[in-house]
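QA checklist item 7 of 12: single-chain prediction sanity check.
[x] sequence parsed
[x] length recorded as 347
[x] structure emitted
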Amino acid sequence: MTIGLDEQAALDFVLTLRRRWADTVYPHLRETFDAGNRCNTGLPMEIAPKVHALSGFGWFAWLERGSQKMLWRAVENAVDRSQPRPAPQGLAARALTDPSLPLPEWYTAWDIHLQPGGVWSSRSAADIYELGAKLVMMGDNDDYKFHQLFAKTALPARAYRRIVDLGCGFGKSTWSLKQAYPSAEVIGVDLAASCLELAVDRAASLGLSIQFRQADACATGLEAGQFDLVTSTMLVHEIPPDVLPLLFAEAARLLAPAGVLAFLDFQPTGDAFRDLAMIEHSARNNEPFMAPMMAADLPGMAQAAGLQRARWTAFDERGAGDLGEARWPQRREWHFPWAVLHAEAAP
């Protein structure tokens, strides 16, 4: 889409505000806390009263939620006033949508990420989500290098025959999987028909042959035991904890013998201050299932579903990608604690 100068200025302002929140306000709050609590480690909720009492905490918390609301207003205005891109011709991708598919209440009841109306309500909502997703990453994922890093660094180097990407949204991770493994049959699954329509357009503009299917990631309807790789990026934290076992059961059902599971999401870092900020981000960003997901035993869920060698690895989105056995590097600015859950089906 073509964005006007006024709309671009509003987007640039919000992006700059979010960057200063991350690289200036957060470090100041952290340094203030550390100066008065040099011997206090503790657990995130144990240090919460002291963090909340800091003079800068109110600004930090307000800016996180307030700038997110500003972001969606600016993005919605930019999309409403933009000139849409023409639909690609000769579509290589296709979407199988199901208007009768019931959407779970936990999916529709929240404006996830504070996006008004959610991503599923209309095609314009999908367009808003696409543009907003770039700004949420503070401008560091404009070419989807983040998802390319996942495909290149977090997956075992194999000749995958069939790949399914669960909760694919508008396809940003699915495209990268197809580009990394062009000979594989790649299927993207999502609940939102509007996002899948957008995914088809974007995949076609990239010349990628991908099938997109509207379905619940916990009950895809795909053939059992036919996929060498089951992935998701930023899906697990958006599913209620009591539903997560169904997700792992479905992934285990889909995997072929010795198939690979790789889910990119978030995990605690062991740094109480940073982990507290992430736990409270769950509420400030309207992501009610994020905090309980981070407290849950997901490797245990994977193993209960019959998968093997379930373990988390840290992920550095700045370029290194999957860090294997290494821990997260020390960083001054606020950032998401990205991590990859790996597991395998029995041979």
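[x] summary fact logged: The mean pLDDT is 92.
[ ] second reviewer sign-off
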